[in-house]
Specification:
By secondary structure, the chain is α+β, with helices and mostly antiparallel strands. It has two helices and four strands; from the N terminus they run βαββαβ. It has one domain: Alpha-Beta Plaits (2-Layer Sandwich), CATH 3.30.70. It is 16% helix and 29% strand. The protein has a two-stranded antiparallel ribbon with strand order 1-4. Strands 2-3 form a two-stranded antiparallel ribbon. It starts with a strand and ends with a strand. The relative contact order is 0.40. The mean pLDDT is 97. It binds iron/sulfur cluster (2 copies).
C-alpha cells in the first residue's frame, strides 16, 4: 500500500503530475497540486508524478 503527499512549498503548479497520474487522485487547487481528499491511499506507487515533477514535490511512502 502506498500513500502520496505533495510538498506545497516545492510545487510550481505545472500540472504534469495531474496529467500523468493513472488513477486521477491529484488536482490543482490555488495553483498547487494536491491529493484529492480521502484518495491518499489510492496511490499505486507508480512514481509517474515523481518522475515528471521538476521540483521533486510528490513524496510516496510505502506503508
Ligand atoms: S505515484 Fe502514480 S498513482 Fe500515485 S499519485 Fe503519483 S502518479 Fe498517481
Ligand atoms: S509536477 Fe510537481 S510542480 Fe508540477 S504540479 Fe505536480 S507537484 Fe507541482
Amino acid at each position: 500500500m502506498y500513500m502520496i503527499s505533495i510538498d506545497a512549498e516545492k510545487c510550481e503548479g505545472c500540472n504534469e503530475c495531474i496529467d500523468g497520474c493513472p488513477v486521477n487522485i491529484l488536482e490543482m487547487t490555488d495553483g498547487k497540486a494536491v491529493v484529492i481528499d480521502g484518495s491518499e491511499s489510492d496511490c499505486m506507487g507508480c512514481e509517474t508524478c515523481v518522475v515528471v515533477c521538476p521540483t521533486a514535490a510528490p513524496v510516496i511512502e510505502e506503508m
